[in-house]
Amino acid sequence: MWRFINSIYKFLTWKGWNKVTEFMNAVMVDSEKDNLPNRKLFGSADFEIDVVFLSAAVIQLDGIKRKSELAVVRRFFTDNFGKSTTNALLKRLRLVLSRKVNTAKYYARIKQHMQNASKLHLLDYLLRIASAKGKISAKELSLIETIAHGIGVNSRGLESVKVRFSFMFASSQKNQKNAFLSSIDMAYKTLEIDKKATDAKVKKAYRSLVKKYHPDTFRGKSEFVLKENTAKFREIQSAYEKICKARNIK
Question: What are the structural domains of the chain?
Fold first, then answer.
């Protein structure tokens, strides 16, 4: 009897037990792919899985799991995937947070299949996770910039998202003041043009972006894609109106 108990104890205290646990968690994460409802983008759970892992990478970067960060995640999942799917995804997230995430493994599908407007919305979401504690660290910003590059977002597109969080990037009061961008600066970033651009270039950029993100272009697409492109379309219109007013463009 004592030999049997001693054998069990040795197994449980075996140094490789943590490896076994990590392996089983990974199996559990992957095996649940086909159990999530409401496939909206690619007809599978793959997109949701990618978002879960990227979310975990941002959350675990500073080693602290905050309620405010999880609240951002829950809201995003609920808005984009529905309540029933959200519960399953949050369960998945808890498992993923127990191990280090290599984000590079989750770029390809998003880069290949996701519309650019939805990519920008995803980056906005990751920045909201990072900013949930009141500021965005240099490491968090670097990680999100790496993700942006990995999923195929160019520097101008990334800047159009980052501008909304610029006041959270700097740590000192002086740097925060310098980092803050006025609404007109944000408008130029949104249209992805320089402030020195001519009126003709402003109009050209506006027409190009309006055509690209017009809701009619995405009729028949998923609710998620339509919703995000419509939001981007309105943002572009607002930015153009601000620039026209400042320049007296008619």
Answer: 17-171 (1.10.3680.10), 182-250 (1.10.287.110)
